[in-house]
Amino acid sequence: MDPQTTSNTDSLPTPYLYVSHFLSMWNSRGFEFGAVLFLATIYPSTLLPMSIYALVRALAAILLSPKVGSYIDKAHRLHVVRLSIVGQRIAVVFSCGLFSVALQSNQLMLDYSLFLIFPLLVIFACLEKLFAIMNTVAIERDWVLVISADNDGALQVLNAQMRRIDLICKLLSPLGIALLHSWSAKLAVWVTLATNATSVLVEYWFIAKVFWQVPTLGQQAHPLEDNDAMEANLISSEMTESTRSRSGPMQNMVQLLSKPLVSYIGQTGFLPSLALSTLYLTVLSFSGQMITFLLSNPSPVFTASTIGLLRMVSTLAELLSTFAAPSLMSKIGPVRAGIWFLSWQAACLTPAVYVLWTGFHGLGQASLPLFVTTLIFSRFGLWSFDLCAQLIIQESVIPSHRGSFSSFEASIQNFFELCAFALTIIFPRPQQFCYPALVSLAAVYCSAGLYAKFVRDRRGHLLHMPSCLKVHQVTYDGNEYELLSNDDANLAGISSSLP
């Protein structure tokens, strides 16, 4: 890799891309967090509306993301991103309008909102989620590749900067909404509405500037060029065409739903993608489940301010990964770097889960610092591996299938997130949190196994063996002998002494 091109993105329209992506992520993260606060304020005595809201939203992403991906692959690039921007902002504006109505203190209005407004909130939440997936997939899995012009160094820089923006918004946007909500819930709703309504014009114009400054974005991927690569995967669907015509409606529906799965598995980026998606089956992060556990845990006692500080340090570790991962990838490549970072995550989470199983008492006073430290360090490994896997997937997936592949990947990630929530439903008490934690650790090891198979298939081996341990085959008198040696001269002498 040419070092001069590794970090040289000065000629690219990155400022416009970064501003547009920042506004998109800021609005998305803020609304995602704010909706939970707004629902908790509207329905303070029950978690049922919030649970239904999150469940239906996730199910919509699981079931409809493949359709979104298919549209991304077929439609004009600029039209796709503009539709995602406008659609997402309209969904948020209408949601905030409904939230402001539902926040009225009149009890009759609350009952009215429960039966009429809440279903509309759920529908707009599903639309917002799907348009957010459309925007993320189109920009992060397609546009950045075209903009980087197949330059690995430029692509690494773009990926790292986009992820850095995402993590900053993940930290600051919810914090801003929480501060506004603590003062006034109605104010937080109206600020969210105003931010989305005003930013749509800036996003719309800036993304168009990127499109017009990169002429190759106007060139769609040509499926005909990809037929040879996908031929083996399409044979199976062609063979079942006659069966499809004779099958019943239910069987036809199953085959229709399995089509994106066949395409997903057939791509060379399948194993890294599945390994990355498996990591979404976790409760070992400073998210809702872990925060609830820490606050409800009788000993040791965690305060809200302490958890907030820990979450900030965790985000800083994640941000650090966006600098460390590209540096390591430029030296040893994304494939090797990925197995290093995934191993780091597994090594960090293993003692954290052990501490949970011992009830923070197994190692005495060292238990709590060990748990917090390893949990934070694991986030560095997670997001570093995310960057490695993303680069591999971007370079492996056929251009005409980027949208469908990444959208199906989003479906799997949402499915694993639902499984993580199901674990805390099955084991709801704080004393039982060690069970979901153990499943989360098992998911990390499963991810490592999947990725190890990919590395083995790609490179032929997992580890570089020292030269003194390399096996040399020597043929003598028609027989083959395997010898260990790091000295060609000694090897020649040994082979000459064979019987």
Radius of gyration, taken over Cα atoms and rounded to an integer in Å = 26 Å
Strands, count:
2
Euclidean distance between termini CA atoms: 48 Å
Protein structure class = mainly alpha
Which strands sit side by side, in order, in the main sheet?
1-2
The helix-strand sequence is: HHHHHHHHHHHHHHHHHEEH
Low-confidence stretches: 1-7, 222-246, 487-498
Beta-strand content bin: under 5%
Q: Helical percent range?
A: over 70%
Mean pLDDT comes to 81
Shape from CA axes?
globular
- Number of distinct helices: 18
* Major sheet attributes: 2 strands, antiparallel
Please provide a brief summary of the model.
With 499 residues, this protein is mainly alpha-helical.
Could you characterize the architecture of this molecule?
InterPro entries: Ferroportin-1, MFS_trans_sf. It is found in: Membrane. Keywords: Ion transport, Membrane, Transmembrane, Transmembrane helix, Transport. Belongs to the ferroportin (FP) (TC 2.A.100) family. SLC40A subfamily. GO terms for molecular function: iron ion transmembrane transporter activity. The protein has a two-stranded antiparallel sheet with strand order 1-2. It has helices at residues 3-6, 14-42, 48-74, 77-102, 107-148, 152-183, 185-213, 227-239, 241-246, 249-266, 270-278, 288-296, 304-332, 334-357, 367-396, 402-426, 434-459, 488-496, and strands spanning 471-476, 479-484. The protein contains 18 helices and two strands. The protein is mostly helical and 499 residues long. Strand 1 (471-476) and strand 2 form a beta hairpin. The protein is globular and about 55 Å long. Mean pLDDT is 81; it is low at 1-7, 222-246 and 487-498. Helix 10 crosses helix 16 (402-426). Helix content is 78%, strand content 2%.
